[in-house]
Design a protein that fits this description.
The structure holds 2 protein chains of 2 kinds. Chain A is α/β, with parallel strands linked by helices. Chain A is built from 10 helices and 11 strands. In chain B, helix 1 packs across helix 2 and helix 1 packs across helix 3. The chains are: A alpha/beta, B mainly alpha. At the A-B interface, helix 2 and helix 4 of A face helix 2 of B.
Chain lengths: ~350, ~90
Amino acid sequence: MTVQPLLPVAIDVLGGDHAPAAILDGARQAAAAGIPVLLVGRAADLEGHDLGGLELIDCSQVIEMDEDGARAVRTKKDSTLVRAAEAVRDGRASAFLSAGNTGATMASALLRMGRIKGVARPAIATPIPVPGSTPTVLLDAGANAECTAAFLVQFAQMGSVYARRRFGIDRPRVGLLSIGEEDGKGNLLAKETNELLRAGAAGPDVNFVGNVEGRDIMSADIDVVVTDGFTGNVVLKTLEGGMKFFAGKVFEALVATPEAKEAAKVLLPQLLPLAEALDPSTYGGAMLLGVDGVAIISHGSSNAIAILNAARVARDMAQDDLVGALRAAIASAPPVVAPAGESAG
Amino acid sequence: MSLDRPAVLALVRDRLADILEIEPSSIAEGASFTDDLDADSLALIELVEALEEEVGKHSPGFHIDDEDLQDLKTVRDAVDYVTAKL
C-alpha cells in the first residue's frame, strides 16, 4: 500500500497580536520540525519578513480582530481566514490554524469546510492544563452562547472522542459543569442535560460521571467538562486571568527582598516547569469540533512556540483522522430525545 | 426551470432542516428563526449562503444583501424576500 504524504497545515500568518513576525517564526519552526506548512497571508504585509521558502497563498484581505465573524467571512471572501479554510476544503491543506478573530475562524471553518453530518453546533474544545496529569478538555469554550441540553449531550460525545484521540485517554471521564455535584443542582439547562446524560442519551461511548464544579476542572479526576459556550468562555478567561495574576505575584515576591532572591535560587527550578505546564502556548490552541476538517483556534497572544505546537496538533489530528472518528461517533450515537419542555435543537 | 413560491418555501425548509438538524416538516412558515427555531447568527448565514448557491442555479447572480438580513425574522420573511428577487 502506498502511503500518501500528508497535506500541509495552512497557517494564517496575519492573525494574532504578534502577527506576522511570531506566526512566521512558528511556521518556520514547524517546517524545520518536519511538519509540512502552507502560509496564507497578504504578500504586501510580509515584505521584509523571512518566509523560510515556504509556499504562500497570497490574499488581498484580512479580517480584523474586532469585526463580526460571520459577516466578515461573507464580505471578505479573499481574506486569509477564508482562503485558509478553503485550502482545507479544496484538498490543498490537511488542516488550518489561526490566532486571529475567533468568530471569523469559526465562521470560515463552518461556511467553507461545512459541518459533520448530524452535528447541531460545532464547539470549541480547549485543553485546560492540569500539572502532573493530562489536560482537561473544556467545551464549549465560546462558540455557542445559547445552548440546549441536546447540544451539550453532543458536546459530551465530541469531547470524549477528542480526549481519546488527542490525549490517549482510553475512557475519558465526562463531567457536566454545574454549581453542585448533586444531580438536581444547577440551572434548567444543567438539570436537563444531567437528566439526559444520566439516562445514557450520549451513548455507551460516553463515560458520564456526573456534575462537576469549577474547582474540579484543574483536577486529575476529570477529563472532559461540558458546558454552554457563554459559561465556558467565562471559565476559560477567569482561569487565564487568575493564573496570570497569581504567577505574576509569585515571581514579584521572589525578587522583592535580598532574602527572597536567595530563596528564589532554590524555588525557581521547581516553579518554572510548573509555569511552563500552565502556559497556554504549551497546548497550541483550541480545536473546533464538529466541522468537516481540522481547524485550530490559537490564542490571540500566540508566540512562535504556540504556533509550532498548534501546527503539531493540527498535523497529528489530521494524520489520526480525528474528523473521521467524530463522524463515526456522531453517526452511531442515539438520537437525543429532549426532556419535556426542551427543544432538541 | 424557474422557482415559484412553494418551491422556494420547500428549499428554505430543506436547507434550514439540514443546518439545524431538525425535520423539515417541523418548520412552520410563520416560525421565527431565533425564537422558535433557536437559529443563531451563524446558522442564518449558513442558510443565506446555501440559498444563494441553490437559487443561483436557477437565477444566476442571485444575492442576498447583508443589510437586508436584519429584516428576515421568520421563514415567511425569507421566502417572500427570495421570491420577490427572482
